[in-house]
């Protein structure tokens, strides 16, 4: 890759956040976008989606 997604996002004016401990869940929500940092975040992403569907 010519760039890392974090760097490209920050250069485009986006805000990047991550967890402090590697391999722990981290979920971010911005309007309709729900994203998880890693596979450990899957349950948190699913919970957030279920909240939105109710």
Walkthrough of the structure:
By secondary structure, the chain is of the alpha+beta class. Helix content is 35%, strand content 15%. The chain contains two helices and two strands. It has a two-stranded antiparallel ribbon with strand order 1-2. Strand 1 and strand 2 (33-36) form a beta hairpin. The longest helix has 12 residues, at 42-53. It starts with a helix and ends with a helix.
The run of helices and strands is HEEH
By helix and strand content, what is the structural category?
A: alpha+beta
Total strand count, please?
2
Mean pLDDT: 92
Instruction: Indicate the proportion of strand residues.
Output: 5-15%
Helix content: 25-40%
Sheet of most strands? 2 strands, antiparallel
Q: Could you name the key traits of this structure?
A:
single chain; alpha+beta; 54 residues; two-stranded antiparallel ribbon; globular
Q: How would you briefly describe this protein structure?
A:
The protein has 54 residues and is an alpha+beta fold.
SSE layout:
Elements: H1 5-11, E1 27-30, E2 33-36, H2 42-53
Antiparallel strand pairs: 1-2
């Amino acid at each position: 890759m010519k760039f890392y997604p974090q760097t490209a996002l920050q250069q485009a004016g986006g805000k990047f956040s991550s967890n402090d401990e590697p391999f722990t869940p981290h979920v971010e929500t911005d309007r309709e976008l729900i994203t998880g940092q890693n596979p450990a975040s899957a349950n948190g992403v699913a919970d957030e989606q279920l909240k939105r569907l109710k």
